Amino acid sequence: xxSISPELLTSIRARFAQIDHxxxxxxxxxFENAGxxxxxxSVVDTSTRYAAIPDNQGRDNPGSHELVxxxxxxxxxxxxxxxxxxxxxFVGESGTELLFRLIMNACLGTGAGVVLGSTLEHPATRSxxxxxxxxxxxxxxxxxxxxxTGTITAEAYAQAVTPDTKVATIIHTxxxxxxxxxVAAVSAAIRAVAPQAVxxxxxxxxxxxxxxxxxxxxxxxYVISPYKVFSRHGYGLAWISDxxxxxxxxxxxxxxxxxxxxxxxxxxxxxxxxxxxxxxEWLGAQVSGESDRRARFVAAxxxxxxxxxxxxxxxxxxxxxxxGLKDMNGMHIIGGIDNPAREGLVSLWVDGIPSVELVxxxxxxxxxxxxxxxxxxxxxxxxPLGQEACVRVSMCHYNSEHEVAQFLxxxxxxxx
Length: 416
Hints:
Structural class: alpha/beta
């Protein structure tokens, strides 16, 4: 598996804004990547440049023509990055908004039957399914996830899917447990019983880890939020299959039949998607001898996975002379100690130390983590575990083992 050397890690970190400091806090270690990853310097520059442009798409002038070219290129870049030969890409208000739109049109366009999902899913998906299944006269069925592993399997879907399943949803990676799901296997289990079901994937938490391969999934929708994959806030990106494209959907009268984009979008948001693709391609070239672009994307994803596994292993098992989380008093790690589904994230709680206090103490020492509460965002994971809250420590490939060591030293002092 391709690896990230210390020298390459230095080059990687140089490409990201605010890699080790916050304008308000000063020096800090960023372990809140699941809440929004760091931003590429190229994305900052691109966003600034496009914010100055007054032209709109679709006009007959040189400025407008260039905007159309940039948008077309960004869509093709995403097609290569996500390996999607068919279907179409478009941007919307946010990942959540796009999930609602895709699920709404899938429910309304497929008739009576079942909308199938799981309790692992983010409320963006669960809420959209609950609302639009009811309106469409469908039944919304949630498959319980495995509390012990923090994920859900294809076998669980296979036991629940029925021939009248019209819409099915899958989360690629949980933002609370940090565990990934085998999307291709789940999709195959659904198709074996309900081959015509519209399958929609929430890829928002997974995208920063690379290794997206839409053509291998046999699904109809895949949504990401670029601010969680090195870009900025203010938009989401969706891919939809030709089948989902042709379902009835909101559109302007007499407008293009297959258009799913609503209104004039920010060309800068599309342009930053090309920045993302360029970064992944660059990284793939550094860790492999591949010349093919798609092969470089694959190599980048493998290197990211290897780096993040090394970081989570060090955090859980220890590094140098520092004990890992598993050896600290009163420590509980969601999903277990050794879990092959883990993607760069460790969620935990400590007996006798309220999670809100632990997050504050870490923040006081320059460690940016996040409190997850048993609310509408995370109650689906925490309530079955009997917990009111947990601490989410989320890493990305640009984090270092030295940062992990600083975190463990802080935790050792806090936990006694």
